[in-house]
Amino acid sequence: MKPKMQSKADRKAQGSVAGTFFRTLAYAMDIFLALLLAMVLLSLWILPRYHGLGLEVLQKLRGSGLQLSSTALASLSKDEQMALLRLLGTFQWVTMAVIFFHFFLGEMLGNGSSIGKRIFRMRVVSNGPNRPYNALLICSRTMISTVCAMVLFPFLAVNFIVALFRKDRRCIHDLLTGTWVVRLM
Question: 99, 136, 141, 148: which is closest to 124 by C-alpha?
């Protein structure tokens, strides 16, 4: 049996549909907090312990006044180039993991609200009354938006532009997962 879609009256009882402006502010706040946490993790724990040579290469480039250009990279040995690539790869994966877990745990523990959404009094709700907002739904929604943010950055802008032109103000990750972001009364 197909789950019954939630009516406008049911969604209204949960709160009004959140506007794109406040969603963007909440998202920017969440990304800022996640990036701050990622920088702390990277600088105090991960990079010093596992990427000594990569950090030495960065300091070498910085000390010589060179920036990350093809000329500067050509002056490095193969080992130094590989150490630098591992360092940059670690930076990207740790940052992506922190962003994912920030949103996933925030919405899981915050009853559908990340820290930014809580500040702007918003939460995520599922599309139907028979479809609870559970860990699987949170995980899929978070994975889509994290991939958009880190891997396909231009797609992130398209995601919010779609919401601007839709009457229901739903982004692509909302449409794919059957969720709504509502403002709490």
Answer: 141
User: How many whole angstroms separate alpha carbon 132 and alpha carbon 113?
Assistant: 15
Q: In whole angstroms, what is the distance from residue 137 CA to residue 112 CA? A: 11
**pLDDT above 80 (res 116):** yes
Rounded to the nearest 5 percent, the helix, strand and coil shares of the chain are: 70, 5, 25
Q: Residue 71 — very low, low, confident or very high, per pLDDT cuts 50/70/90?
A: confident
pLDDT in tens, 55-65: 777 777 776 66
Q: For residue 10, is it within any domain?
A: no
Token pair recorded at residue 159: 């995601």
- What's 124's DSSP letter? E
Encode pLDDT of 148-183 as tens digits. Answer: 777 766 777 787 788 888 888 888 888 888 888 888
What residue numbers bound the domain in which 23 lies? Answer: 16-183
Output the DSSP codes for 16-53. EEPPHHHHHHHHHHHHHHHHHHHHHHIIIIIHHHH-HH
Is residue 155 included in any domain, yes or no? yes
At 88, the amino acid letter reads: L
Euclidean distance between CA atoms 65 and 47, whole angstroms = 22
